[in-house]
Design brief:
Elements (H helix, E strand, L loop, with lengths): L4 H6 L3 H8 L1 H10 L8 H15 L1 H9 L4 H7 L6 E2 L9 E2 L4 E2 L13 H5 L7 H17 L4 H31 L3 H4 L5 H22 L1
Antiparallel strand pairs: 1-2, 2-3
Helix pairs in contact: 2-4, 3-4, 8-9
Length: 213
């Protein structure tokens, strides 16, 4: 099967590959699930990934059924593909050859330097869950120090967590400034102003004393 150079540039994992090379049945799949199918191929990829997040394994099974190289894969597949534990869901459904988890659709960082593409799958993931994911891969990396790709993934995820914390800190500081009482925002009196206030007070005291006499 001949694929265009433009399509290959965007094919980062199995979901990307399936959508870019066989978009028609993927659009039908989204339509059958009650979603509008984007005409833009890149938007279609994102919509498909979102559907996988919501529906999980059932959608992945249907996507694999329309894999553009399905016949060739079945013809060559004399034994089961080597599987490993998924970094995201911990199920033994991660296909190492395809960099793709059959249970949750997660793809590991492949060390290519394309951090943005890898981090896209965590865009909507809450900080707490991302921290749990980070803790999981740190333990896994410590037990397999020879895995350089996993070590790189640990660094990429840590950088993402650090950036999120920095943004939260900046937002917190901005909110603190906005809620500071107006009285506390006034600068302190200068020395000359204090002298004038003191002189005015003494002057008023002297006038009162004269009037009393």
């Amino acid at each position: 099967m001949k694929h265009s150079k433009k399509q290959k540039e965007f094919a980062q994992n199995s979901i990307d590959y399936i959508v870019y090379n066989n978009p028609v049945p993927v659009r039908k799949l989204l339509y059958d699930c009650g979603y509008e199918s984007p005409k833009n191929i890149h938007h279609l990829v994102e919509a498909t990934k979102e559907l996988v997040k919501k529906n999980g394994k059932s959608i992945i099974t249907q996507l694999l059924a329309v894999h553009p190289d399905k016949k060739a894969i079945l013809a060559l597949q004399t034994t089961d593909k080597k599987k490993g534990s998924c970094n995201a869901c911990s199920n033994d459904s991660y296909q190492e050859e395809d960099n793709f988890c059959g249970s949750c659709g997660h793809s590991n960082y492949n060390g290519s330097g394309d951090e943005d593409s890898f981090l896209d799958q965590f865009t909507d993931l809450p900080d707490a869950k991302l921290e749990k994911y980070y803790t999981r891969i740190v333990k896994k990396s410590n037990s397999t120090p020879e895995d350089q790709k996993l070590a790189s993934e640990v660094q990429v995820v840590w950088n993402e967590l650090r950036q999120r914390r920095l943004l939260q800190s900046e937002d917190s500081q901005e909110n603190t400034k906005d809620t500071t009482p107006a009285a506390q925002q006034h600068p302190p009196f200068k020395r000359e102003e204090l002298l004038l206030i003191g002189m005015s007070f003494l002057g008023g005291f002297v006038v009162c004393s004269v009037l009393k006499k």
